[in-house]
Amino acid sequence: MLKIDHLTKRYKDTTALDDLDFEVKPGVVTGFLGPNGSGKTTTMRLILGLDHPTKGRATIDGLNYADLKAPLREVGALLDAKAVHPGRTARNHLRALATSNQIPKARVDEVLEFVGIASVAHKKVGSYSLGMSQRLGIAGALLGDPGVLLFDEPVNGLDPEGIKWIRDFFRSLAKEGRTVFVSSHLMSEMAVSADQIIVIGRGRFITQGSVDDLTATAQGTVFVRVSDPPQLVSLVKNHNGTVEEMNDGNLTIGGLTSDQIGGIAFNAGITVLELTPQRASLEDVFMDLTADSLEFGSSKPETAHHE
Amino acid sequence: MSKNENVVSTAKSEWIKFRTVNSTIVGIALLFFLTIGFSLLITLVLRAHWDQSTRIDKLTFDPVSTSLVGVFFAQFAVGVIGVLFISAEYSSGSIRTTLAAVPNRVRLVTGKVIVLFGSMFIVCEVVTFVTFLMGQAVFSGVVPTASLSSGSVLRAVILTGVYLALLTLLGFALGLILRQSAASISVFVVILLIVPLISLSFPESWRNDIERFELGNLWTSMASTTTPSHLFTAWSAFAALVIYVVAFLAAGTVLLQTRDA
Fold first, then answer.
1. Domains of chain A, start order
2. Predicted TM-score (pTM) of this structure
3. How far apart are CA B108 and CA B5, in angstroms?
4. Spatial CA neighbour of A81 closest among A168, A155, A169, A188
5. Cβ A92–B22 below 8 Å, yes or no?
6. How many CB atoms lie within 10 A of CB B247?
7. B212 and A CB contact within 8 Å
8. pLDDT tens figures, A81-127
9. Best interface-test mutation with B: which of A9, A46, A85, A105 has the largest number of B CBs within 10 A?
Protein backbone atom coordinates (compact mmCIF):
# COMPACT_ATOMS: atom_id res chain seq x y z
CA MET A 1 0.00 0.00 0.00
CA LEU A 2 1.09 3.50 -0.84
CA LYS A 3 0.88 6.06 1.93
CA ILE A 4 1.37 9.79 1.59
CA ASP A 5 2.08 10.95 5.10
CA HIS A 6 1.72 14.70 5.70
CA LEU A 7 3.93 15.46 2.75
CA THR A 8 5.11 19.04 2.33
CA LYS A 9 7.49 20.25 -0.37
CA ARG A 10 8.73 23.80 -0.72
CA TYR A 11 10.93 25.09 -3.50
CA LYS A 12 12.47 28.36 -2.33
CA ASP A 13 9.37 30.49 -1.85
CA THR A 14 6.74 28.36 -3.59
CA THR A 15 4.93 25.58 -1.78
CA ALA A 16 4.37 22.70 -4.20
CA LEU A 17 2.79 20.36 -1.68
CA ASP A 18 1.12 21.45 1.51
CA ASP A 19 0.61 18.76 4.14
CA LEU A 20 -0.74 16.24 1.63
CA ASP A 21 -2.03 13.16 3.38
CA PHE A 22 -3.82 10.13 1.90
CA GLU A 23 -3.56 6.43 1.22
CA VAL A 24 -3.78 4.54 -2.03
CA LYS A 25 -5.24 1.06 -1.60
CA PRO A 26 -4.51 -2.03 -3.63
CA GLY A 27 -7.09 -3.71 -5.85
CA VAL A 28 -8.57 -0.58 -7.37
CA VAL A 29 -7.49 2.04 -9.87
CA THR A 30 -6.96 5.27 -7.97
CA GLY A 31 -7.10 8.45 -10.00
CA PHE A 32 -5.00 11.40 -8.88
CA LEU A 33 -6.78 14.44 -10.18
CA GLY A 34 -5.79 18.06 -10.15
CA PRO A 35 -5.31 21.01 -12.47
CA ASN A 36 -1.93 21.52 -14.11
CA GLY A 37 0.61 22.70 -11.55
CA SER A 38 -1.32 21.33 -8.59
CA GLY A 39 1.52 19.07 -7.43
CA LYS A 40 0.71 15.68 -8.99
CA THR A 41 4.13 15.16 -10.55
CA THR A 42 5.87 16.49 -7.43
CA THR A 43 4.00 13.91 -5.38
CA MET A 44 5.11 11.13 -7.74
CA ARG A 45 8.72 12.34 -7.58
CA LEU A 46 8.65 12.35 -3.80
CA ILE A 47 7.23 8.81 -3.74
CA LEU A 48 10.20 7.68 -5.86
CA GLY A 49 12.70 9.50 -3.65
CA LEU A 50 13.83 11.70 -6.55
CA ASP A 51 13.14 14.88 -4.60
CA HIS A 52 13.54 15.35 -0.89
CA PRO A 53 10.43 16.26 1.10
CA THR A 54 10.50 19.39 3.23
CA LYS A 55 8.30 17.60 5.75
CA GLY A 56 6.51 14.27 5.98
CA ARG A 57 7.21 11.17 3.93
CA ALA A 58 5.84 8.79 1.33
CA THR A 59 6.01 5.08 2.07
CA ILE A 60 5.48 1.84 0.20
CA ASP A 61 4.31 -0.89 2.56
CA GLY A 62 5.79 1.19 5.34
CA LEU A 63 9.19 1.68 3.75
CA ASN A 64 10.85 4.72 2.23
CA TYR A 65 11.56 4.18 -1.46
CA ALA A 66 15.31 4.36 -0.84
CA ASP A 67 15.05 1.42 1.58
CA LEU A 68 13.47 -0.96 -0.95
CA LYS A 69 15.79 -3.90 -1.66
CA ALA A 70 14.93 -4.15 -5.36
CA PRO A 71 12.79 -1.08 -6.08
CA LEU A 72 11.73 -2.04 -9.61
CA ARG A 73 10.27 -5.28 -8.25
CA GLU A 74 8.07 -3.35 -5.82
CA VAL A 75 7.23 -0.09 -7.58
CA GLY A 76 6.90 0.53 -11.30
CA ALA A 77 6.64 4.12 -12.41
CA LEU A 78 6.11 6.05 -15.59
CA LEU A 79 6.77 9.73 -14.99
CA ASP A 80 8.09 11.21 -18.22
CA ALA A 81 7.96 8.94 -21.25
CA LYS A 82 10.53 11.01 -23.12
CA ALA A 83 13.09 10.74 -20.30
CA VAL A 84 15.12 8.06 -22.06
CA HIS A 85 18.52 8.46 -23.74
CA PRO A 86 17.47 9.10 -27.37
CA GLY A 87 20.50 7.29 -28.77
CA ARG A 88 19.82 3.96 -27.06
CA THR A 89 17.48 1.30 -28.42
CA ALA A 90 14.36 0.40 -26.48
CA ARG A 91 15.63 -3.12 -25.80
CA ASN A 92 18.98 -1.90 -24.48
CA HIS A 93 17.26 0.70 -22.33
CA LEU A 94 15.10 -2.00 -20.74
CA ARG A 95 17.98 -4.45 -20.45
CA ALA A 96 20.02 -1.91 -18.51
CA LEU A 97 17.05 -1.28 -16.22
CA ALA A 98 16.36 -4.99 -15.73
CA THR A 99 20.00 -5.76 -15.00
CA SER A 100 20.21 -3.12 -12.27
CA ASN A 101 17.52 -4.96 -10.30
CA GLN A 102 18.54 -8.51 -11.33
CA ILE A 103 15.41 -9.02 -13.39
CA PRO A 104 15.91 -11.85 -15.95
CA LYS A 105 16.64 -10.81 -19.52
CA ALA A 106 13.68 -12.81 -20.83
CA ARG A 107 11.34 -10.44 -19.02
CA VAL A 108 12.51 -7.58 -21.27
CA ASP A 109 11.15 -9.28 -24.39
CA GLU A 110 8.01 -10.23 -22.51
CA VAL A 111 7.12 -6.64 -21.62
CA LEU A 112 8.13 -5.36 -25.07
CA GLU A 113 5.74 -7.89 -26.57
CA PHE A 114 3.02 -6.99 -24.07
CA VAL A 115 3.02 -3.25 -24.79
CA GLY A 116 3.24 -3.90 -28.51
CA ILE A 117 6.60 -2.39 -29.45
CA ALA A 118 8.63 -5.59 -29.84
CA SER A 119 8.93 -5.03 -33.58
CA VAL A 120 10.62 -1.65 -33.08
CA ALA A 121 12.63 -2.57 -29.98
CA HIS A 122 15.89 -2.47 -31.95
CA LYS A 123 15.29 1.14 -32.99
CA LYS A 124 16.70 4.14 -31.19
CA VAL A 125 14.24 5.68 -28.76
CA GLY A 126 14.88 9.14 -30.23
CA SER A 127 12.92 8.10 -33.32
CA TYR A 128 9.84 7.10 -31.29
CA SER A 129 6.56 8.97 -31.35
CA LEU A 130 5.15 10.08 -27.99
CA GLY A 131 2.70 7.18 -28.10
CA MET A 132 5.51 4.65 -28.63
CA SER A 133 7.55 6.30 -25.87
CA GLN A 134 4.55 5.98 -23.54
CA ARG A 135 4.38 2.28 -24.33
CA LEU A 136 8.10 1.95 -23.65
CA GLY A 137 7.62 3.77 -20.35
CA ILE A 138 4.81 1.37 -19.44
CA ALA A 139 7.07 -1.56 -20.36
CA GLY A 140 9.71 -0.15 -18.01
CA ALA A 141 7.17 0.18 -15.20
CA LEU A 142 6.05 -3.45 -15.66
CA LEU A 143 9.57 -4.84 -15.88
CA GLY A 144 9.85 -5.93 -12.25
CA ASP A 145 6.23 -7.18 -12.03
CA PRO A 146 5.69 -4.71 -9.15
CA GLY A 147 2.78 -4.53 -6.73
CA VAL A 148 2.59 -0.74 -6.88
CA LEU A 149 2.29 1.12 -10.17
CA LEU A 150 2.49 4.87 -10.67
CA PHE A 151 1.56 6.54 -13.94
CA ASP A 152 1.84 10.28 -14.46
CA GLU A 153 -0.51 11.47 -17.21
CA PRO A 154 -0.27 8.15 -19.09
CA VAL A 155 -2.86 8.86 -21.77
CA ASN A 156 -0.98 11.87 -23.13
CA GLY A 157 0.04 11.14 -26.69
CA LEU A 158 -1.88 7.91 -27.00
CA ASP A 159 -4.32 7.38 -29.83
CA PRO A 160 -7.92 6.39 -29.01
CA GLU A 161 -7.08 2.72 -29.41
CA GLY A 162 -4.14 3.16 -27.04
CA ILE A 163 -6.31 4.95 -24.51
CA LYS A 164 -8.87 2.14 -24.58
CA TRP A 165 -6.05 -0.37 -24.20
CA ILE A 166 -4.52 1.44 -21.24
CA ARG A 167 -7.86 1.74 -19.40
CA ASP A 168 -8.46 -1.99 -19.67
CA PHE A 169 -4.86 -2.58 -18.69
CA PHE A 170 -5.18 -0.48 -15.49
CA ARG A 171 -8.31 -2.41 -14.54
CA SER A 172 -6.62 -5.75 -15.07
CA LEU A 173 -3.61 -4.64 -12.99
CA ALA A 174 -5.93 -3.60 -10.18
CA LYS A 175 -7.90 -6.84 -10.47
CA GLU A 176 -4.65 -8.71 -9.84
CA GLY A 177 -4.53 -6.96 -6.48
CA ARG A 178 -1.99 -4.30 -7.36
CA THR A 179 -2.01 -0.69 -6.27
CA VAL A 180 -2.58 1.42 -9.37
CA PHE A 181 -2.14 5.17 -8.98
CA VAL A 182 -2.80 7.23 -12.09
CA SER A 183 -2.56 11.00 -12.33
CA SER A 184 -4.45 13.13 -14.79
CA HIS A 185 -5.74 16.65 -15.23
CA LEU A 186 -8.63 15.28 -17.31
CA MET A 187 -11.64 14.46 -15.18
CA SER A 188 -13.45 12.91 -18.09
CA GLU A 189 -10.58 10.42 -18.37
CA MET A 190 -10.63 9.68 -14.65
CA ALA A 191 -14.40 9.24 -14.68
CA VAL A 192 -14.08 6.25 -16.98
CA SER A 193 -10.78 4.76 -15.89
CA ALA A 194 -10.60 5.19 -12.11
CA ASP A 195 -12.57 3.57 -9.28
CA GLN A 196 -11.37 5.89 -6.57
CA ILE A 197 -10.41 9.50 -7.08
CA ILE A 198 -8.19 11.78 -5.02
CA VAL A 199 -8.51 15.43 -5.90
CA ILE A 200 -5.80 17.97 -5.12
CA GLY A 201 -5.39 21.63 -5.93
CA ARG A 202 -2.43 23.90 -5.25
CA GLY A 203 -0.66 21.11 -3.44
CA ARG A 204 -3.51 20.60 -0.98
CA PHE A 205 -5.79 17.64 -0.53
CA ILE A 206 -9.34 18.55 -1.59
CA THR A 207 -11.41 15.40 -1.50
CA GLN A 208 -11.41 11.66 -2.02
CA GLY A 209 -14.02 9.14 -3.00
CA SER A 210 -15.55 7.04 -5.75
CA VAL A 211 -16.82 8.70 -8.89
CA ASP A 212 -20.40 8.25 -7.60
CA ASP A 213 -19.51 9.75 -4.21
CA LEU A 214 -18.04 12.80 -5.83
CA THR A 215 -20.91 13.44 -8.23
CA ALA A 216 -23.45 12.84 -5.46
CA THR A 217 -22.04 15.74 -3.50
CA ALA A 218 -22.79 18.12 -6.32
CA GLN A 219 -26.30 19.33 -7.00
CA GLY A 220 -27.67 18.38 -10.37
CA THR A 221 -30.10 20.26 -12.54
CA VAL A 222 -33.54 19.31 -13.86
CA PHE A 223 -34.61 19.49 -17.48
CA VAL A 224 -38.27 20.50 -17.92
CA ARG A 225 -40.60 21.00 -20.86
CA VAL A 226 -43.98 22.49 -19.97
CA SER A 227 -47.06 23.98 -21.58
CA ASP A 228 -46.49 27.45 -20.07
CA PRO A 229 -42.79 28.16 -19.57
CA PRO A 230 -43.00 31.85 -18.44
CA GLN A 231 -45.40 30.94 -15.63
CA LEU A 232 -43.18 28.11 -14.42
CA VAL A 233 -40.12 30.39 -14.53
CA SER A 234 -41.72 32.92 -12.19
CA LEU A 235 -42.94 30.13 -9.86
CA VAL A 236 -39.47 28.54 -9.78
CA LYS A 237 -37.96 31.88 -8.84
CA ASN A 238 -40.51 32.24 -6.01
CA HIS A 239 -39.35 28.87 -4.69
CA ASN A 240 -35.68 29.96 -4.73
CA GLY A 241 -34.86 27.89 -7.78
CA THR A 242 -32.70 29.18 -10.62
CA VAL A 243 -33.25 28.94 -14.35
CA GLU A 244 -29.91 27.96 -15.83
CA GLU A 245 -31.01 27.78 -19.40
CA MET A 246 -34.12 28.47 -21.41
CA ASN A 247 -34.75 28.04 -25.08
CA ASP A 248 -37.99 27.37 -26.93
CA GLY A 249 -39.74 26.50 -23.70
CA ASN A 250 -37.09 23.96 -22.68
CA LEU A 251 -35.91 24.86 -19.18
CA THR A 252 -32.93 23.74 -17.19
CA ILE A 253 -33.61 24.41 -13.55
CA GLY A 254 -31.18 24.36 -10.66
CA GLY A 255 -31.69 24.46 -6.89
CA LEU A 256 -34.86 22.35 -6.90
CA THR A 257 -35.44 18.61 -7.21
CA SER A 258 -37.61 17.08 -9.93
CA ASP A 259 -40.18 16.17 -7.24
CA GLN A 260 -40.44 19.78 -6.13
CA ILE A 261 -40.76 21.09 -9.70
CA GLY A 262 -43.42 18.47 -10.52
CA GLY A 263 -45.39 19.58 -7.45
CA ILE A 264 -45.11 23.28 -8.30
CA ALA A 265 -46.34 22.67 -11.84
CA PHE A 266 -49.22 20.48 -10.68
CA ASN A 267 -50.43 23.08 -8.15
CA ALA A 268 -50.36 25.80 -10.83
CA GLY A 269 -52.13 23.62 -13.37
CA ILE A 270 -49.22 23.61 -15.78
CA THR A 271 -48.97 20.56 -18.02
CA VAL A 272 -45.59 18.86 -17.66
CA LEU A 273 -44.45 17.39 -20.97
CA GLU A 274 -41.04 16.26 -19.84
CA LEU A 275 -39.21 16.22 -16.50
CA THR A 276 -35.67 14.78 -16.28
CA PRO A 277 -33.20 15.06 -13.40
CA GLN A 278 -29.67 15.60 -14.70
CA ARG A 279 -26.70 14.48 -12.64
CA ALA A 280 -23.73 16.74 -12.29
CA SER A 281 -20.85 15.43 -14.35
CA LEU A 282 -17.57 14.71 -12.65
CA GLU A 283 -16.24 17.58 -14.68
CA ASP A 284 -18.67 20.02 -13.04
CA VAL A 285 -17.72 18.67 -9.63
CA PHE A 286 -14.07 19.03 -10.38
CA MET A 287 -14.51 22.59 -11.58
CA ASP A 288 -16.42 23.46 -8.41
CA LEU A 289 -13.81 21.82 -6.20
CA THR A 290 -10.76 23.31 -7.77
CA ALA A 291 -12.11 26.67 -8.86
CA ASP A 292 -10.32 28.38 -5.97
CA SER A 293 -7.10 26.51 -6.42
CA LEU A 294 -6.26 26.95 -10.08
CA GLU A 295 -2.65 28.04 -10.17
CA PHE A 296 -2.98 29.61 -13.57
CA GLY A 297 -6.62 30.56 -13.58
CA SER A 298 -8.12 31.95 -16.75
CA SER A 299 -11.56 33.43 -17.20
CA LYS A 300 -12.53 30.27 -19.08
CA PRO A 301 -10.97 27.29 -17.36
CA GLU A 302 -9.71 25.58 -20.51
CA THR A 303 -7.92 22.79 -18.67
CA ALA A 304 -11.30 21.40 -17.76
CA HIS A 305 -12.53 20.99 -21.28
CA HIS A 306 -9.54 20.14 -23.34
CA GLU A 307 -9.16 16.50 -24.17
CA MET B 1 15.98 -16.57 -2.98
CA SER B 2 15.84 -12.84 -2.92
CA LYS B 3 17.62 -11.02 -5.66
CA ASN B 4 18.44 -7.52 -4.60
CA GLU B 5 20.13 -4.76 -6.41
CA ASN B 6 23.74 -4.42 -5.37
CA VAL B 7 26.89 -2.76 -6.62
CA VAL B 8 27.62 -5.62 -9.04
CA SER B 9 24.19 -5.40 -10.68
CA THR B 10 24.51 -1.62 -10.79
CA ALA B 11 27.89 -1.89 -12.54
CA LYS B 12 26.52 -4.47 -15.01
CA SER B 13 23.61 -2.17 -15.80
CA GLU B 14 25.91 0.81 -16.24
CA TRP B 15 28.13 -1.26 -18.53
CA ILE B 16 25.14 -1.90 -20.81
CA LYS B 17 24.39 1.84 -20.76
CA PHE B 18 28.01 2.78 -21.43
CA ARG B 19 28.46 0.60 -24.48
CA THR B 20 25.04 1.12 -26.07
CA VAL B 21 25.30 4.80 -26.94
CA ASN B 22 27.06 6.27 -29.94
CA SER B 23 28.84 8.97 -27.93
CA THR B 24 31.01 6.30 -26.26
CA ILE B 25 31.89 4.62 -29.54
CA VAL B 26 32.56 7.93 -31.31
CA GLY B 27 34.54 9.22 -28.33
CA ILE B 28 36.80 6.18 -28.25
CA ALA B 29 37.25 6.26 -32.03
CA LEU B 30 38.19 9.92 -31.74
CA LEU B 31 40.57 9.09 -28.89
CA PHE B 32 42.43 6.59 -31.12
CA PHE B 33 42.35 8.82 -34.15
CA LEU B 34 43.65 11.93 -32.37
CA THR B 35 46.31 10.20 -30.29
CA ILE B 36 47.72 8.00 -33.01
CA GLY B 37 47.20 10.52 -35.80
CA PHE B 38 48.96 13.44 -34.13
CA SER B 39 51.74 11.28 -32.75
CA LEU B 40 52.34 9.82 -36.20
CA LEU B 41 52.38 13.24 -37.82
CA ILE B 42 54.78 14.74 -35.32
CA THR B 43 57.14 11.78 -35.11
CA LEU B 44 57.35 11.66 -38.92
CA VAL B 45 58.11 15.39 -39.11
CA LEU B 46 60.72 15.01 -36.39
CA ARG B 47 62.40 12.13 -38.17
CA ALA B 48 62.49 14.08 -41.43
CA HIS B 49 64.10 17.13 -39.81
CA TRP B 50 66.31 15.35 -37.27
CA ASP B 51 69.48 16.42 -39.17
CA GLN B 52 68.56 20.06 -38.77
CA SER B 53 67.92 19.80 -34.99
CA THR B 54 70.26 21.78 -32.75
CA ARG B 55 72.67 20.03 -30.43
CA ILE B 56 70.70 21.15 -27.38
CA ASP B 57 67.49 19.80 -28.92
CA LYS B 58 69.16 16.48 -29.47
CA LEU B 59 70.52 16.39 -25.92
CA THR B 60 67.15 17.13 -24.27
CA PHE B 61 65.24 14.85 -26.66
CA ASP B 62 62.94 12.37 -24.90
CA PRO B 63 61.76 9.60 -27.23
CA VAL B 64 59.04 8.51 -24.77
CA SER B 65 57.08 11.73 -24.25
CA THR B 66 57.73 12.88 -27.82
CA SER B 67 56.22 9.71 -29.25
CA LEU B 68 53.18 10.20 -26.98
CA VAL B 69 52.56 13.82 -27.99
CA GLY B 70 49.09 12.94 -29.35
CA VAL B 71 47.98 12.37 -25.76
CA PHE B 72 47.63 16.13 -25.53
CA PHE B 73 44.58 15.81 -27.81
CA ALA B 74 43.44 12.58 -26.21
CA GLN B 75 42.84 14.48 -22.96
CA PHE B 76 39.87 16.28 -24.49
CA ALA B 77 38.37 13.12 -25.97
CA VAL B 78 38.46 11.26 -22.64
CA GLY B 79 37.13 14.31 -20.79
CA VAL B 80 34.11 14.44 -23.10
CA ILE B 81 33.49 10.69 -22.73
CA GLY B 82 33.52 11.09 -18.94
CA VAL B 83 31.27 14.16 -18.91
CA LEU B 84 28.67 12.65 -21.26
CA PHE B 85 28.43 9.41 -19.28
CA ILE B 86 26.51 11.36 -16.65
CA SER B 87 25.46 14.66 -18.27
CA ALA B 88 23.54 12.86 -21.04
CA GLU B 89 21.39 11.32 -18.30
CA TYR B 90 20.49 14.80 -17.16
CA SER B 91 19.89 16.24 -20.63
CA SER B 92 17.61 13.34 -21.57
CA GLY B 93 15.96 13.14 -18.14
CA SER B 94 16.85 9.45 -17.86
CA ILE B 95 18.66 10.17 -14.58
CA ARG B 96 15.25 9.88 -12.91
CA THR B 97 14.70 6.41 -14.37
CA THR B 98 18.22 5.51 -13.26
CA LEU B 99 17.67 6.77 -9.71
CA ALA B 100 14.31 5.02 -9.49
CA ALA B 101 16.11 1.75 -10.33
CA VAL B 102 19.10 2.49 -8.09
CA PRO B 103 17.99 4.83 -5.31
CA ASN B 104 21.29 4.48 -3.43
CA ARG B 105 23.32 7.39 -4.82
CA VAL B 106 26.68 6.19 -3.52
CA ARG B 107 26.10 2.80 -5.14
CA LEU B 108 25.15 4.44 -8.41
CA VAL B 109 28.31 6.57 -8.52
CA THR B 110 30.42 3.55 -7.51
CA GLY B 111 28.90 1.45 -10.29
CA LYS B 112 29.46 4.16 -12.87
CA VAL B 113 33.06 4.75 -11.72
CA ILE B 114 33.85 1.02 -11.88
CA VAL B 115 32.56 0.82 -15.45
CA LEU B 116 34.09 4.08 -16.64
CA PHE B 117 37.51 3.58 -15.09
CA GLY B 118 37.65 -0.14 -15.87
CA SER B 119 36.83 0.22 -19.54
CA MET B 120 38.72 3.46 -20.12
CA PHE B 121 41.82 2.13 -18.33
CA ILE B 122 42.03 -0.71 -20.85
CA VAL B 123 41.26 1.55 -23.81
CA CYS B 124 43.78 4.19 -22.73
CA GLU B 125 46.55 1.66 -22.07
CA VAL B 126 45.98 0.14 -25.51
CA VAL B 127 46.09 3.53 -27.19
CA THR B 128 49.25 4.67 -25.35
CA PHE B 129 51.11 1.41 -25.98
CA VAL B 130 50.17 1.43 -29.65
CA THR B 131 51.17 5.09 -29.96
CA PHE B 132 54.47 4.53 -28.15
CA LEU B 133 55.45 1.50 -30.23
CA MET B 134 54.44 3.26 -33.43
CA GLY B 135 56.57 6.28 -32.48
CA GLN B 136 59.62 4.14 -31.76
CA ALA B 137 59.12 2.37 -35.09
CA VAL B 138 59.07 5.75 -36.86
CA PHE B 139 62.19 6.92 -34.98
CA SER B 140 64.17 3.71 -35.40
CA GLY B 141 67.38 4.07 -37.41
CA VAL B 142 67.40 7.87 -37.38
CA VAL B 143 66.20 9.26 -34.07
CA PRO B 144 67.17 7.76 -30.67
CA THR B 145 64.52 5.31 -29.43
CA ALA B 146 63.36 4.02 -26.05
CA SER B 147 62.54 0.45 -25.13
CA LEU B 148 59.84 -0.97 -22.86
CA SER B 149 62.49 -3.24 -21.35
CA SER B 150 63.64 -0.19 -19.40
CA GLY B 151 61.67 0.05 -16.14
CA SER B 152 61.30 3.82 -16.24
CA VAL B 153 60.10 3.74 -19.87
CA LEU B 154 57.53 1.07 -19.10
CA ARG B 155 56.35 3.08 -16.08
CA ALA B 156 56.05 6.25 -18.20
CA VAL B 157 53.91 4.52 -20.83
CA ILE B 158 51.67 2.77 -18.31
CA LEU B 159 51.19 5.92 -16.24
CA THR B 160 50.23 7.88 -19.35
CA GLY B 161 47.35 5.45 -19.85
CA VAL B 162 46.47 5.78 -16.18
CA TYR B 163 46.56 9.57 -16.52
CA LEU B 164 44.02 9.48 -19.34
CA ALA B 165 41.77 7.02 -17.52
CA LEU B 166 41.80 9.22 -14.40
CA LEU B 167 41.09 12.28 -16.54
CA THR B 168 37.94 10.49 -17.77
CA LEU B 169 36.82 10.25 -14.15
CA LEU B 170 37.56 13.94 -13.64
CA GLY B 171 35.27 14.73 -16.60
CA PHE B 172 32.64 12.42 -15.10
CA ALA B 173 32.91 14.16 -11.71
CA LEU B 174 32.47 17.57 -13.37
CA GLY B 175 29.39 16.27 -15.17
CA LEU B 176 28.05 15.00 -11.84
CA ILE B 177 28.57 18.40 -10.24
CA LEU B 178 27.38 20.64 -13.10
CA ARG B 179 24.77 18.24 -14.65
CA GLN B 180 25.08 19.95 -18.02
CA SER B 181 27.22 18.79 -20.94
CA ALA B 182 28.36 22.14 -22.33
CA ALA B 183 29.15 23.66 -18.94
CA SER B 184 31.04 20.58 -17.78
CA ILE B 185 33.13 20.35 -20.95
CA SER B 186 33.90 24.07 -20.76
CA VAL B 187 35.10 23.80 -17.17
CA PHE B 188 37.16 20.76 -18.09
CA VAL B 189 38.88 22.72 -20.87
CA VAL B 190 39.41 25.68 -18.54
CA ILE B 191 41.13 23.47 -15.96
CA LEU B 192 43.27 21.86 -18.63
CA LEU B 193 44.19 24.88 -20.75
CA ILE B 194 43.29 28.18 -19.14
CA VAL B 195 44.55 27.58 -15.60
CA PRO B 196 48.16 27.09 -16.86
CA LEU B 197 47.87 30.38 -18.80
CA ILE B 198 46.70 32.24 -15.71
CA SER B 199 49.58 30.89 -13.67
CA LEU B 200 51.95 32.48 -16.20
CA SER B 201 50.98 35.86 -14.80
CA PHE B 202 52.23 34.96 -11.32
CA PRO B 203 55.73 35.96 -10.19
CA GLU B 204 58.45 33.56 -11.31
CA SER B 205 59.22 32.54 -7.73
CA TRP B 206 55.70 31.22 -7.13
CA ARG B 207 55.26 29.63 -10.49
CA ASN B 208 57.33 26.55 -9.89
CA ASP B 209 55.32 25.83 -6.76
CA ILE B 210 52.00 26.31 -8.52
CA GLU B 211 52.70 24.81 -11.90
CA ARG B 212 53.59 21.36 -10.65
CA PHE B 213 49.96 20.97 -9.54
CA GLU B 214 48.56 21.65 -13.01
CA LEU B 215 47.08 18.66 -14.83
CA GLY B 216 49.37 18.94 -17.84
CA ASN B 217 52.44 18.98 -15.60
CA LEU B 218 51.16 16.01 -13.64
CA TRP B 219 51.13 14.16 -16.93
CA THR B 220 54.63 15.43 -17.76
CA SER B 221 55.79 14.02 -14.43
CA MET B 222 53.97 10.72 -14.93
CA ALA B 223 55.26 10.33 -18.50
CA SER B 224 58.87 11.29 -17.92
CA THR B 225 61.67 8.82 -17.45
CA THR B 226 63.55 11.32 -15.29
CA THR B 227 62.13 13.80 -12.81
CA PRO B 228 62.30 17.42 -13.96
CA SER B 229 63.65 19.48 -11.04
CA HIS B 230 60.63 21.75 -10.59
CA LEU B 231 57.95 19.03 -10.97
CA PHE B 232 56.63 16.11 -8.89
CA THR B 233 58.09 12.66 -9.24
CA ALA B 234 55.98 10.28 -11.33
CA TRP B 235 54.36 8.60 -8.32
CA SER B 236 53.75 11.85 -6.44
CA ALA B 237 52.07 13.23 -9.53
CA PHE B 238 49.94 10.08 -9.74
CA ALA B 239 48.97 10.50 -6.08
CA ALA B 240 48.09 14.17 -6.64
CA LEU B 241 45.87 13.27 -9.59
CA VAL B 242 44.11 10.56 -7.60
CA ILE B 243 43.44 13.10 -4.85
CA TYR B 244 41.92 15.54 -7.37
CA VAL B 245 39.68 12.87 -8.84
CA VAL B 246 38.54 11.56 -5.46
CA ALA B 247 37.83 15.08 -4.21
CA PHE B 248 35.73 15.97 -7.27
CA LEU B 249 33.91 12.62 -7.17
CA ALA B 250 33.16 13.08 -3.48
CA ALA B 251 31.78 16.57 -4.12
CA GLY B 252 29.65 15.24 -6.97
CA THR B 253 28.30 12.38 -4.86
CA VAL B 254 27.38 14.67 -1.97
CA LEU B 255 25.55 16.97 -4.41
CA LEU B 256 23.76 13.99 -5.96
CA GLN B 257 22.55 12.97 -2.53
CA THR B 258 21.40 16.37 -1.39
CA ARG B 259 19.92 17.86 -4.57
CA ASP B 260 16.54 17.03 -6.07
CA ALA B 261 17.05 14.95 -9.20
1. 2-216 (3.40.50.300), 219-278 (3.30.70.1510)
2. 0.86
3. 11
4. A155
5. no
6. 12
7. no
8. 989 999 999 999 999 999 999 999 999 999 999 999 999 999 999 99
9. A85
